[in-house]
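Fresh eyes needed here. Have a critical look at this protein's tokenised backbone.
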Amino acid sequence: MIHFELSSAARRRDPSSFDQYVANSHHALQRIADNPPGYYSTLDKGLWDIVVDTFARIAPPSKIVVLGIGGSALGARTLADALCPERRDKLVVLDNVDPHTITHAVSDEELPTTLFLAISKSGSTAETASQLLYFRQRMLKAGIDDWAQRVVAITDPENGALRQLAEREGMLTLPVPSDVGGRFSVLTPVGLAPA
């Protein structure tokens, strides 16, 4: 919008309009600088260190499976592709509940060494919950009783069904900051953990 307003004023060759648009743009940017949205400071919150510390407690997985939709899936895939393209075959992003896709995402042989990242900011995303329940059932059926040790829940730091499940079952967790909207969460554990 700022670019359109500036170029529009320039086309009219009206210096007073141009000066006013520059002043308005400066004022808008100053408001953002004085009270930045949550996503502006995600890397300043020490989130990278939290992700690194969490993964240091986990045996290196043969595969990582992202359970999530929308920004949880798109951001994770984009950041992983950008930062670690050589590991693309080790990351599976399940961004839907298609039975064929989910069933074939992890083989029975890979299941014991696969890490699942259940991502839901609200903690109540139906697709993420159904994906998690499917893999939980598969692990239990395969005799993997410590299934919760193979799942990292990335969710609200305090609330939601996923947070409650993680605490009850002893899963490792990573926070999605409350002041960061889902579509801006790629620089939080949502995108950093899979990468």
In short: Strands lie at 63-67, 91-94, 114-120, 151-155, 172-175. Residues 75 and 164 are 24 Å apart (CA to CA). The radius of gyration is 21 Å. The longest helix spans residues 15-34.
